[in-house]
Amino acid sequence: MTTRTLSPASYDRLTATVARDTGERRTAALWIHAAALVRHAYDHGLAPADDRPPGPDGLLKSLENLANCHPALAPLADPAVLPLREQPLGAAAWAAVEEFWDRHPALEDERRVDGYALGDAYQLLSEEARKGRALCQTPPWVARLLLRLSLEPAMEEWGPADIRMIDPACGTGHIAVAAFHMVRVPPVHGRRPSPVEYGPRAVERALAAVSGVDLDAYAAALTAYRLLACSAHVLGVGLDRVPASWPVNVAAADSLLDRTEPLLAAGAYHACVANPPYITPKDPAIRDQVRAAYPQVAAGKYSLALPFTALMLDRLATPGGFVAQLTANSFMKREFGRRYVTEFLPRFDARWIIDTSGAYIPGHGTPTCILVHRARPPVGETVTVIRGNGGEPHVPEDPARGLVWRAIEDAVDSRLAWDRFQAGADFARLSGEPTP
Questions:
Q1: Residues 363 and 314 grouped into a single domain
Q2: Judgement on whether residues 183 and 65 belong to the same structural domain of the protein
Q3: pLDDT tens digits along 31-47
Q4: Taking a C-beta distance cutoff of 8 angstroms, is the pair 226, 239 a contact?
Q5: CB neighbours of 413 closer than 8 A, spacing ≥ 6?
């Protein structure tokens, strides 16, 4: 099976067709996406039975089967998450859904079960998620860079066996899935990994290490499914054979305001990594609640990205923990960013400031930057800054190979290589060995 990139308009047309049955677009998007999720499970041999029941009723039965595979998948049968029975589909609408996924598969081929295309499809289908909650998935190559600058050094400092990371605005799980793979197979620097690092113990360790929280209950359920799908694929089993005792740390909650969700416990994480929403809350009541909860950063018509920074640095990160985010650079230009820049950020140890405004990042029309801090007072006098000189001359065929993005990665590689050389030289000097 091959993956084809479709225009947002093709998803929009299908949603409009199905909405004529459901009466509104939100449930139409959920019907369409749930059909894709079930196909993903069956096509990759993850579902507990070989035969997929046909029709809309068969889809509901398949979702129940998946929900029974692991406690973390229970939301797939929860009408509060997937209210499908209340707004059923007719034969014509179901045929349109089936034909769409037959002609335009949004799923990986048999060699990939990460579900990146499945996550992107939800963003394209759900207008409510895109416009109401600013859902915008982080491309895998952006997620990898964020994790290289945060989760990777955290594992070096605390060790992969004890590491914990969170994405408090996880969406459909792009960053969480990339983090799962990084923890499962840690980057190797100067040693040969043992086979046990790639076995069941490594899968269990990676699941325990990665956490994600999102306001969208279905997006959170999709993140949990993707983490379990990756685990089952590595183990070579179906979803029902992944031990129920293995926790999948994903929850649906308001990360900024919820103080009862266990995954949002203070000081619990060595790495916090996010691509938080950049919008200003539209609901005046919520806007005021967030402003009251984060007075140090939520001033004026603030961007939600600023309270998320405060959440990660001031609350979620353990002392010295790494915080990396792709965020809008509007705080550099607008009045609401003044207090954030002059009073809040100087309290923390800035490590990287990377201008990504010239890079082509699909779905991100807002100019962005990458900020990496440690949750501790400033140490030393050096902050690594990568400044942009211009944008892409044209839209690159492969955004991960765009001229600007490649220049950013090359600059990061050079700096990290120098830092490793310097650390080796310092170690040799202190230990009395010859300096390289």
A1: yes
A2: no
A3: 999 999 999 999 899 99
A4: no
A5: none
